[in-house]
C-alpha cells in the first residue's frame, strides 16, 4: 500500500479557551482514514498569523495533504488566509473568480468595494491559490456550497462543523489516496484485563509485525468487556489471519460480543443524541418476538441489503442480551437473485462468518428465488420454524398497511412475519449502521441506494456528480437526503 499522509490544523482561540468543542478533527480523521489516508498529526493553533504561517509551512513539508479548519470569515479574527499566504511567502489579494461567486449568489453587490461589502474579505486569498468549486449534486441544496481555497498541498476549510462536514463530503474525491488503497480494520472485545492477555497480544504483534498494526485499550465501566483490541492492515487477508490467531490463542470465552451493551446503552441516548425512537421500537418488537417464540423457532431473512443488515445486527444484540446462554444456531434465509451482484454474494458470506462468531453460529440457507418458493422450501425442511424476521420498511412496495406482527397471506406458506424496523426511515437505517460502525455491502459506497439484481439495478442518479475532468462519480448512499428517491436506481 502506498503511504499517503495528512496533517490537520485546527485554528481558533475559541478552541484553545475551551469555549467550543472541536468536532471537525474527529470527523476528518475518520473520513480520511476511510479514504486510505494516514493522519499523522493534529495541531490546534490560535488566531495568530505568524503561528498559522509557521504551522502550515511545517506541515506542508512533512505531509502529502494539509487540511485547515477555522479562521475563515469576514471578521477581524479570521486570519487563516493571511497566515496560509505567509507560509508560502505570498500576500493575499481579491480573487476575481471568488468575488464573482459571491456576486452570483447575491451575497455582495459590488466586487470592487470591500468596505461596502465586508464579505469580500473571504475572497482575499493567497495569490497562487486555486479554487475548488463544489460540484452541485442533485440531492443537495446550495446552502453550504462555498468554494474551498487550495494552495500547493494545503486545503483551507471553514470551521463551522455543518459547513466543514458538508464540504469535506463534497470534495472527498480530491482527498482519497491516489493509489486507491484503503485500510482494513477489526475490533475484538476481551473480558480480561490487559495484564492477563499481554503475553498473547505481544506474540501476535511479533508474528504480524510486518503486516498488522495492533492497538490495546482498557475500558472502564463496561459490563461485558475490559479490553478492546484493534487490528489494522493494508489487506483484509492479513486482518483475518491476525484475528484468527488471537481467537485461537486468547483464553476460551474471553472474546465477547458487546453489541447488546452498545445497543441497549444506545436506547438511553435516544433523546440526547437525536437518535430515532424507532431504534427503541425495533428492540421492543424483537424482545416481544423472542418472548412469544423460542430462538430456535425463528429465522431471519438476510439478503445482504442495508435494511436486513441493520436487522441482523439488532437481532444479534437482543439475543445476546436476553438469551446469553443460548448457543444454538440462528437460522437465516438468503433468497438469491437470478443475477446477484458478486459484491452482495461476498458480503453475505462475510456476514455469515462475522455473525456466526457473535451468535455461536448463523445457519444460512441459500435458495434461488422467487421469495414465495424459497420460503416454502425453508419451512418444508424446517417445520418447527414459526416466525421470520424481515427487514421490511413501510416505504417498501405493498408494505404501507403491514403490521409489526402479521401472518403471511393465505396463498403463501404460513409463517408469522415480524418486522422490527417497519417504521424506520432511510436516514434511520444509515444513522444506525454508521453510528455503530456496522459493516455493510461496499456497493452502497458506490452510489447504490437500493439493491436488487445485477441487470436491473444502477447507482442512484440523485447521487451523481461530474468532476472537473468531466468524469461522473456517485456519492455514498448515506448522503442521500430524500429517502423518497431511495429506489430511483431500480430499473
TrEMBL record:
UniProt keyword annotations, A-Z: ATP-binding, FAD, Flavoprotein, FMN, Nucleotide-binding, Nucleotidyltransferase, Transferase
EC number(s) reported in the record: 2.7.7.2
Top EC group: transferase
Coiled coil (residue ranges): none
Residue ranges annotated for the MoaB/Mog domain, each copy included: 7-178
Secretion signal, residue range per the UniProt entry: none
GO terms (BP aspect): FAD biosynthetic process
Transmembrane annotation, as ranges: none
GO molecular function: ATP binding; FMN adenylyltransferase activity
InterPro entries hit by this protein: FLAD1_M (IPR056596), MoaB/Mog-like_dom_sf (IPR036425), MoaB/Mog_dom (IPR001453), PAPS_reduct_dom (IPR002500), Rossmann-like_a/b/a_fold (IPR014729)
Pathway(s) served: Cofactor biosynthesis; FAD biosynthesis; FAD from FMN: step 1/1
Reaction catalysed by this enzyme: FMN + ATP + H(+) = FAD + diphosphate
Domain of life: Eukaryota
Pfam families, sorted: FLAD1_M (PF24102), MoCF_biosynth (PF00994), PAPS_reduct (PF01507)
Family: In the N-terminal section; belongs to the MoaB/Mog family.
Protein name per its UniProtKB record: FAD synthase
Organism the protein comes from: Diploptera punctata (Pacific beetle cockroach)
Amino acid at each position: 500500500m502506498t503511504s499517503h499522509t495528512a496533517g490537520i490544523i485546527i485554528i481558533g482561540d475559541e478552541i484553545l479557551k475551551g469555549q467550543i468543542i472541536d468536532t471537525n478533527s474527529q470527523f476528518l480523521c475518520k473520513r480520511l482514514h476511510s479514504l486510505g489516508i494516514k493522519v499523522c498529526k493534529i495541531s490546534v493553533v490560535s488566531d495568530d498569523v505568524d503561528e498559522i504561517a509557521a504551522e502550515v509551512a511545517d506541515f506542508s513539508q512533512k505531509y502529502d495533504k494539509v487540511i485547515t479548519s477555522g479562521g475563515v470569515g469576514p471578521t477581524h479574527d479570521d486570519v487563516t488566509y493571511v497566515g496560509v499566504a505567509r507560509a508560502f511567502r505570498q500576500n493575499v489579494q481579491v480573487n476575481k473568480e471568488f468575488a464573482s461567486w459571491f456576486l452570483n449568489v447575491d451575497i455582495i453587490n459590488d466586487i470592487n468595494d470591500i468596505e461596502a461589502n465586508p464579505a469580500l474579505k473571504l475572497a482575499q486569498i493567497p495569490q497562487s491559490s486555486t479554487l475548488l468549486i463544489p460540484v452541485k449534486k442533485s440531492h443537495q441544496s446550495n446552502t453550504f456550497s462555498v468554494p474551498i481555497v487550495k494552495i500547493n498541498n494545503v486545503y483551507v476549510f471553514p470551521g463551522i462543523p455543518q459547513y466543514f462536514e458538508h464540504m469535506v463530503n463534497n470534495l472527498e474525491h480530491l482527498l482519497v489516496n491516489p493509489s486507491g488503497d484503503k485500510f482494513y480494520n477489526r475490533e475484538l472485545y476481551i473480558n480480561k484485563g490487559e495484564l492477563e492477555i499481554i503475553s498473547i497480544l505481544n506474540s501476535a504483534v511479533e508474528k504480524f509485525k510486518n503486516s498488522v498494526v495492533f492497538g490495546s485499550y482498557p475500558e472502564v465501566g463496561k459490563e461485558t468487556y475490559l479490553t478492546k483490541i484493534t487490528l489494522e492492515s493494508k489487506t483484509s487477508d492479513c486482518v483475518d489471519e491476525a484475528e484468527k490467531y488471537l481467537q485461537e490463542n486468547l483464553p476460551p470465552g474471553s472474546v465477547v460480543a458487546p453489541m447488546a451493551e452498545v445497543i441497549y446503552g444506545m436506547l438511553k441516548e435516544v433523546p440526547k443524541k437525536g437518535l430515532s425512537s424507532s431504534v427503541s421500537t425495533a428492540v421492543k418488537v424483537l424482545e416481544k418476538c423472542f418472548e412469544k417464540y423460542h430462538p430456535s423457532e425463528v429465522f431471519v431473512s438476510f439478503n445482504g441489503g442495508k435494511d436486513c443488515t441493520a436487522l441482523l445486527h439488532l437481532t444479534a444484540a437482543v439475543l445476546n442480551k436476553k438469551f446469553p446462554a443460548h448457543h444454538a444456531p440462528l437460522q437465516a434465509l438468503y433468497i438469491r437473485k437470478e443475477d446477484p451482484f458478486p459484491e452482495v454474494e461476498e458480503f453475505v458470506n462475510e456476514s455469515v462468518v462475522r455473525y456466526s462468531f457473535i451468535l455461536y453460529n448463523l445457519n444460512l440457507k441459500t435458495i434461488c428465488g422467487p421469495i414465495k418458493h424459497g420460503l416454502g422450501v425453508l419451512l418444508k425442511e424446517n417445520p418447527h420454524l414459526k416466525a421470520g424476521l424481515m427487514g421490511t420498511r413501510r416505504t417498501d412496495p405493498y408494505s404501507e398497511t403491514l403490521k409489526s406482527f402479521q401472518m403471511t397471506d393465505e396463498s403463501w406458506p404460513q409463517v408469522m412475519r415480524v418486522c422490527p424496523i417497519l417504521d424506520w426511515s432511510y436516514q434511520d437505517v444509515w444513522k444506525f449502521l454508521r453510528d455503530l460502525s456496522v459493516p455493510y455491502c461496499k456497493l452502497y459506497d458506490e452510489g447504490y441506494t437500493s439493491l436488487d439484481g445485477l441487470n436491473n439495478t444502477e447507482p442512484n442518479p440523485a447521487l451523481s456528480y461530474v468532476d472537473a475532468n468531466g468524469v461522473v462519480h456517485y456519492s455514498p448512499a448515506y448522503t442521500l437526503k430524500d429517502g423518497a428517491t431511495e429506489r430511483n436506481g431500480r430499473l
